[in-house]
Design a protein that fits this description.
Elements: H1 2-24, H2 29-60, H3 66-69, E1 116-117, H4 129-138, E2 144-150, E3 164-165, E4 180-183, E5 189-192, E6 197-200, E7 205-209, E8 214-218, E9 223-226, E10 230-234, E11 240-244, E12 247-251, E13 257-261, E14 264-268, E15 274-277, E16 282-285, E17 290-293, E18 296-299, E19 323-331, H5 332-335, H6 348-360, E20 365-371, H7 378-398, E21 404-409, H8 428-434, E22 436-442
Parallel strand pairs: 20-21
Antiparallel strand pairs: 1-3, 2-19, 4-5, 5-6, 6-7, 7-8, 8-9, 9-10, 10-11, 11-12, 12-13, 13-14, 14-15, 15-16, 16-17, 17-18, 19-22, 20-22
Helix pairs in contact: 1-2, 6-7
Length: about 450
């Protein structure tokens, strides 16, 4: 489905670009009006295509219905109050008897993930040979992502790249100008080169495509991002959907949401209650300070509401960044048990494959960085992040990695998402993203 949509988006985008270029070259105001009208019509057609494919994707990956989930029987619960730091232990009668989700305390479960876009300044770098080769060599594992990395003038990696959170006010993202550039003098224009094309309608709406990726901003807060493996649609009213080959995430914009990926399903009803299930453990949060974990009652804070989505980023220009390597991000819950710095046996294949990829691609050096969320003291989080980074280095070396590996811990100092909501309330999904280990591999 996504391959066909990407092909249609790219083909239609190219056709519109040609039409606009021909119109724009005329130089008259009437020609400009026709160009903007043509682009507006194109955006309407693109959105219709996206809506049809999104409906098909949702039909293929139907998420559980909250009304049906109460009848699952065994359940339990826990808000995702934390998985990394101290001070969050629950007062269960016998914690050792409570099944736990790996990386989480008894009664806790992962939050519904936040929506993110790839770093928009590195869109063209997604097709770089080094990025493609490294992504293929590392393989596809839950909780592992590979993204292009950019560096500053001193060759230091710019942190927090790899993702753009879709929870802001739509502050503009720049998109570079290269190759052919047409400026119609009314805020609208076109830029194009051998790799990508960008159409700005001058009213907040626009379209970007580079053959593999297409972005549509409708100018009203809504928009669509379409990549080879992911489709994201933002409604502009707090709601939105995210689908890829294995995952469906439906944010209703009112604090409630549903999520399904493989055997994992999560329901947050927005009122403090919800259900997590992975085929082995079922956690039902009752919203009254208790939860059921496979039928065993534990204490658990009510679930925090799912943050409403923001508006789609405005595509004003596109200021591209230079690629300097790749960043491999590993979810801390995949690597470690709750509050621990010992690699879980289930994570061994992930790191073994990463070590093989480093050797096969001739990587000479890499930096392994540990990160935590902001729950717990600064000193504790700093130590934990250092221990976790060192544990990953030791495991990679034991798996035969020959690159020079450096372990660094940053504690809670480099978040990639807010740890709290604007009103100061806890943001479990944001903290979930912050608990991670990153491996920065410089480009060869």
């Amino acid at each position: 489905m996504k391959h066909h949509l990407t092909t249609r988006l790219s083909a239609l985008g190219a056709a519109v670009l040609i039409a606009l270029t021909m119109s724009g070259c005329g130089g008259g105001n009437d020609d400009n009006s026709e160009a903007v009208a043509a682009a507006t019509q194109a955006l309407t057609q693109l959105n219709a295509q996206v809506a049809a494919d999104l409906a098909a994707a949702q039909a293929d990956q139907a998420t559980p219905d909250p009304a049906d989930s109460d009848d699952t029987g065994t359940a339990v619960a826990g808000p995702t109050t934390d998985a990394d730091e101290t001070g969050g232990d629950l007062d269960a009668a016998d914690p050792n008897a409570i099944p736990v989700v790996p990386g989480y305390a008894p009664g806790e479960a992962p939050a519904i993930p936040l929506f993110t876009l790839p770093d928009l300044s590195l869109l063209d770098a997604q097709n770089d040979a080094f990025v493609v080769d490294f992504t293929e060599a590392v393989g596809d594992y839950p909780g592992l992502t590979v993204a292009p990395a950019s560096c500053d003038a001193s060759s230091q990696r710019i942190t927090s790249d790899g993702a753009t959170l879709l929870y802001g006010d739509g502050a503009a993202v720049d998109a570079g100008q290269g190759g052919t550039l047409l400026d119609f003098g009314d805020g609208s224009g076109i830029s194009a080169d051998d790799v990508s094309s960008f159409i700005n309608l001058g009213n907040g709406a626009g379209m970007y495509t580079n053959g593999a990726i297409s972005i549509i901003n409708n100018g009203d807060g809504s928009g669509t991002y379409q990549g080879p493996d992911v489709l994201i649609q933002i409604g502009g009213d707090g709601s939105g959907t995210y689908t890829d080959r294995t995952t469906s995430n439906d944010n209703h914009g009112d604090g409630s949401a549903t999520y399904a990926s493989g055997n994992v399903s999560i329901i947050n009803r927005g009122d403090g209650t919800g259900v997590y299930s992975d085929g082995t453990i079922t956690i039902e949060n009752l919203g009254d300070g208790t939860a059921l974990v496979n039928g065993l009652e534990v204490e658990a804070e009510p679930l925090a509401p799912v943050p409403a989505l923001g508006v789609f980023p405005v595509l004003d220009a596109i200021d591209t960044a230079d690629l300097c390597g790749v960043t491999v991000t590993l979810d801390a819950a995949v690597l470690f048990d709750y509050d621990k710095a010992t690699i879980r046996p289930e994570a061994e294949p992930v790191l073994e494959n990463l070590a093989t990829a480093l050797n096969d691609l001739g990587v000479a050096s890499a930096v392994v960085e540990g990160h935590t969320d902001a729950h717990g003291s600064d000193a504790y989080n700093q130590t934990l992040s250092e221990q976790r980074a060192e544990a990953v280095v030791q495991t990679l070396e034991a798996d035969g990695a020959t690159a020079g590996l450096t372990a660094v811990g940053y504690g809670e100092s480099r978040p990639v998402a807010p740890n709290t909501m604007p009103d100061g309330a806890d943001n479990p999904a944001g903290r979930q993203l912050n608990r991670r280990v990153e491996v920065f591999v410089p480009a060869l």
